[in-house]
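Tokens help. Consider this.
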Amino acid sequence: MNVLVIGANGKVGRHLVRLLGQNKSHRVKALIRNSDQAEALERLGAETVVADLEGTVGEIAAAIKGSDAIVFTAGSGGKTGADKTLLIDLDGAVKTMEAAEQAGIQRFVMVSALHAENREQWPESIKPYYVAKHYADRLLEASNLDYTILRLGGLTDDVGTGKVATGEVLTSHTISREDVAAAVIAVLEEQQTYHRAINLVSGSTPIAEAIRL
């Protein structure tokens, strides 16, 4: 597959680009906001293309054209305000969905947040982020895309174990970014994950098995 990573310069994105670059079944392209980010990602094995999620749907569609799958792991980051969260985590995600449909790309993997679907469990401290994830997920579920939504626990920089937990009853509430990247790759061609939202935290089940449960 030709996989386009949106948010490739983030911590999850860099793990994902690296693992895809090592995977002979896939080719990876990184969408970046400015050309200064290109060299580091190209060293990890990615082609790069420049586009801005605050630009137009047509501009994003032109940048992603030719891809077989889109992974959306972009975020405005914790240091920005609610306005950027709205523009990147919500509108940027929705523009990317529209661009994927415009460019004829069916496969779409969304990196989301644990409990994004349940307003009663949103942390007050980052509520705008959860609002953005909630509505981006809902619009993806209403689209014609072959989507998978991965709802992640709190992210850590621990070394990945290759083992996770899924489902509704979870004893862990965190997951390493490296295991997230490995899970994204595992779901890409696993049709059993199409049109599903999957909770994902650290656990004891191998990733390839866990995502099919």
Summary: The longest strand covers residues 107-113.
